[in-house]
Amino acid sequence: MPRQVDHAERRRRIADAVSELADERGLEGVTLRDVAARAEVSMGAVQRCFRTKEEMLVFALGHIGERIGGRVRARLVRSPAQSAGTALGHAATEVALLREEHRAEARVWLAFVAQAAVSEVLAGTVQANYAALEESFARLIEEAGADAGRTAGAGTDTGGAAPLDPRREARALLALADGLTTHVLIGHLTPRAAQDVLHAHLARLLSQ
Question: Whole-structure pTM over 0.85, yes or no?
Answer without folding.
Answer: no
